[in-house]
Amino acid sequence: MELGIIIGHEREDFEYAKNHGLKFLEICHNIGNDCPALLARADEMNAYIKEYGVKIGSVGRWGTDKIDENGNLIEEELQNSYILIDFCEKVGCTVFNTGVNYVEGLSAYENVTAAINYLQKLVDYGRDKGVRIATYNCDWNNFVRCPYYWKLIHGHIKELGIKYDPTHCINSGSGDYLGEMKEWGDRFYHVHLKGTINVNGDHVDDPPAGMDMINWGAFMGILYKKHYNGTLAIEPHSGTWKGELGEFGVQYTIDCMKKLIF
Do 117 and 73 form a contact (C-beta atoms < 8 A)? Predict the structure, then answer.
């Protein structure tokens, strides 16, 4: 497994990762970000990759609508996804993460069918480019985030993977992240490392991984059981952990996780 971080994609970000002994950056090119502009910077990214020896481990797009109110694919966003897959190919990134919005005016069957249509197109497009597609298990404009829908959608699209973050299971799901891993860990293509603390059902904070309520030893143990050999991306997320405290938190997670990586 390789340890990296969710961060920007400027020269200083590649330098930051190198100085911290990290192997990759994750780019989250979310709603509102220009996809053709990122593709236009692929050669620049490749120069940074070569200079610093830090690769791009995954690219993701969160928050956008893929399906309109009638259940049709939104062509502009489909093309944006294709563009980001093209970017992945050009910079040697093998995982693209995405989600699918739930349309309230449609039946569950129609939503699942629309999601399969969209995701199958991405899987087919990425196959010859060496880019695998994963759905993120976050609820940000995405319903393909739990075993119920994985059985329907991933069960149908055999090549479709999962980008997994245990905090989403804890904060907006069943809470049984180890159970989800036991059942679906063999479909993980990418993993986020982010901590969370809940007390009496109330969310308190998202401190650095290793300083929270998640059993990271058991988490990693199941990844080894599932023969996971992919990317682990540190995700600085909390408004508490900024500045010098934030830097301490990143280094704490690096030190903690390196003890668990073979």
Answer: yes
Largest Cα separation within the chain, whole Å, is: 51
Q: What is the mean pLDDT of each run of 10 residues along the chain (262 residues)?
A: 98 98 98 98 98 98 98 98 98 98 98 98 98 98 98 98 98 96 98 97 96 98 98 97 98 98 96
Contact 224, 261 (CB under 8 A): no
* pLDDT for residue 139: 97
* Angle at CA of residue 232, ends 123 and 38, nearest 5°: 55
- Residue 12: CA count within 13 A, CB half-sphere: 1
Residue that the structure tokens 């039946």 belong to: 107
The one-letter amino acid code at 190 reads H
Q: Which residue from 167, 186, 78 is spatially nearest to 86, judged by alpha carbons? A: 78
As given in the structure block, the two tokens for residue 48 are 């940074």
Tokens representing residue 193 in the block: 């490392």
User: For helices 42-52 and 75-91, what crossing angle results, to 10°?
Assistant: 30
**CA 43 to chain CA mean position, Å:** 23
Alpha carbon distance 185, 228 (integer Å): 8
Q: Which of 143, 193, 200, 195 is nearest to 173 (CA)?
A: 143
Length, in residues, of the chain: 262
C-alpha distance from residue 112 to each of 74, 82, 180 (Å): 16, 21, 20
